[in-house]
Design a protein that fits this description.
This protein has 275 residues and is of the alpha+beta class. The chain has two domains: 112 residues, Photosynthetic Reaction Center, subunit H, domain 2 (Photosynthetic Reaction Center, Chain H, domain 2); 122 residues, Photosynthetic Reaction Center, subunit H, domain 2 (Photosynthetic Reaction Center, Chain H, domain 2, Alpha-Beta Complex). The radius of gyration is 19 Å and the shape is globular. 16% of the residues lie in helices and 30% in strands.
């Protein structure tokens, strides 16, 4: 899909994930046909160069009424490993693929859940915790069904039993359980029983919007074939290799032709650019 350069947020200061000032927004790339912003064009100061950052990898806020940008996980050293972008050269499919792979490496270790695939905005309209009343709940990812004395924080919803629908309201399955990070109290995955074969799979929360009035979960752009490509979930806790297998399977399905279904671009689906 061709892009066109726009000047949205040009001049806005940018800080990395550690809060260090690293440069400013030079402009952005928007889809030529829809006008939706997909990338910020970031001009680095200390090491002069341009790099593209997927819109979902950055947060825009307005301290003192002026827009500013802060990166979710990348620090300056990470950005120096991102392919340099020439604003005068069109972004082709191969270059975009390499760019996204490089950005994916920014989310590792303690930064793993900074990835937009684990953003709760679509689930709870904010970051709400699932809180356990017992201290002895382990130290990792656990099925909500395993945790005794659980309550949902104010504003959060319990989607267990809700249908999961995908593109054009296609029924994909039913939400059976939640996978909770016992260290933070936050939901990381929904356990979905696929329609048709009933197999349980994990879907990261960043792919899901909870539609409260309808009591259903919505995974925009996700197809039944995408769920079929996910590794089976056997129940219980979830280790990091299993998590990486889930994310890798989704990336393989969505890159390159359906890359904008990825949560890396979720903000763009909700907020049109200035034309």
């Amino acid at each position: 899909m061709p892009f066109r350069a726009v000047r949205d947020l040009a001049g806005s200061p940018v800080a990395d994930a550690g809060g260090r000032s690293i440069g400013a927004i030079y402009g952005a790339l928007a889809e030529a046909d829809t006008g939706l912003i997909r990338y910020f064009d970031l001009s680095l100061e200390e090491h002069p160069r341009h790099v593209l950052v997927p819109i979902g990898h950055a947060r825009v806020h307005e301290p003192e009424g002026q827009p500013a940008v802060r990166l979710r996980a990348a620090v300056l050293g990470d950005l120096l490993e991102i392919p340099i972008y020439d604003p005068d050269t069109p972004l082709d499919a191969d270059a975009e693929h390499d760019l996204l792979v490089a950005h994916g490496r920014c989310f590792y270790g303690e930064r793993y859940y900074a990835h937009p695939a684990y953003d709760h905005t679509g689930m709870y309209a904010g970051v709400h915790e699932v809180v356990t009343r017992t201290a002895d709940v382990g130290d990792g990812l656990a099925s909500l069904r395993q945790l005794a004395g659980v309550r949902f924080a104010a504003g959060a919803s319990d989607p267990r039993g809700w249908p999961l629908v995908g593109e054009v309201d296609t029924l994909l399955g039913t939400v059976d359980d939640l996978i909770v990070d016992t260290r933070s109290g936050q939901v990381r995955y929904l356990v979905v029983h696929r329609a048709g074969d009933g197999q349980a799979v994990l879907l990261p929360v960043g792919f899901i919007l909870l539609e409260h009035p309808a009591h259903r979960a919505h995974a925009p752009g996700i197809l039944a074939e995408d769920l079929s490509a996910l590794p089976p979930y056997a129940g219980g806790g979830v280790d990091r290799p299993s998590e990486e297998a889930v994310r890798s399977a989704l990336v393989r399905r969505l890159l390159p032709a359906r890359r904008h279904v990825l949560p890396d671009f979720r903000d763009a689906r909700r907020r049109p650019s200035a034309r």
